[in-house]
Specification:
Chain A is mainly α. Chain A is built from three helices and no strands. In chain A, helix 1 packs antiparallel against helix 2 and helix 2 packs antiparallel against helix 3. Chain B has 91 residues and is mainly alpha-helical. In chain B, helix 1 packs antiparallel against helix 2 and helix 2 runs antiparallel to helix 3. The chains are: A mainly alpha (149), B mainly alpha (91).
Chain lengths: 149, 91
């Protein structure tokens, strides 16, 4: 391989990388949509849409950064990617929590609900049985017997 | 080559948007629809990214950033509305 062909290959490399990232991102977005359509209940749909959706749009943003190859564009594209990566888990958490507490039905073949009974139904705060809670420590380093165990 | 890839990406994203819209219409509960709207905002961001490459104007990226911001705020607001005594499915 001569230096000239290597140079042309290297000059074409960003376009190929951007094209690959673009197609992969678009396919992940399609996967998120298909998961949203086919999955049986809210939590499983969120499992498909949140992760595949965030990955797909992040890949497309990185493709934009690679395609342009300028500092300003790269900074904005990376900011968008970082913002998606930071906010989509938070949004999924609050939505799943709201769905769980408003009584959205789960899939009929769910075997067990681990969270059931560990949350206060009215206040939505963690209300595990007394023995799981950390007991208060007194000055002499011993835990007082509150008789709740 | 880039032109072809951009069009293929547009087609795939359109399919994803159609599929998401079907689930948005089917529901069946309000949190499902909120999740689908969230996914649609992400899909629109992806559309804007692809269109930024197609048009060559990098200013469209700012729109994607603002869209991500408002979509996150909408999701949090909807979740708060649902949890603090809004529409309920269990009664």
């Amino acid at each position: 391989m001569t230096i000239e062909t290597l140079d042309t290959w290297l000059a074409a490399a960003p376009a190929w990388i951007a094209a690959g990232l673009l197609l992969t991102g678009a396919l992940f977005m399609l996967l998120a949509g298909l998961g949203a359509l086919r999955m049986p209940d809210l939590l499983m749909r969120m499992h498909a849409t949140t992760k595949a959706g965030a990955l797909g749009s992040g890949l497309i943003m990185i493709a934009v950064a690679v395609h342009f190859g300028e500092t300003g564009v790269t900074a904005r594209a990376l900011a968008a990617t970082l913002f998606i990566m930071l906010t989509s888990p938070v949004a999924a958490h609050v939505l799943a929590r709201a769905g769980y507490f408003t009584g959205v039905p789960m899939w009929s073949k769910i075997v067990r609900d681990e969270l059931k009974g560990k949350y206060d139904e009215d206040t939505h705060t963690l209300a595990s049985p007394q023995r799981y809670r950390q007991k208060p420590v007194t000055d002499d380093g011993k835990t007082p017997d509150d008789g709740a165990g | 080559m880039m032109e072809v890839v951009v069009w293929i990406s547009f087609i795939i994203l359109c399919l994803a948007l159609v599929v998401t819209f079907i689930r948005l219409v089917l529901g069946p509960t309000l949190p499902d629809r909120v999740v689908m709207l969230e996914l649609m905002a992400l899909l629109t961001m992806a559309f804007i990214g692809v269109y930024t490459i197609k048009s060559g104007h990098s200013a469209f990226l700012d729109v994607a950033l603002v869209l991500a911001l408002t979509a996150f705020l909408a999701a949090v607001g909807f979740a708060r509305y649902l949890e603090k005594g809004g529409h309920r499915d269990d009664d």
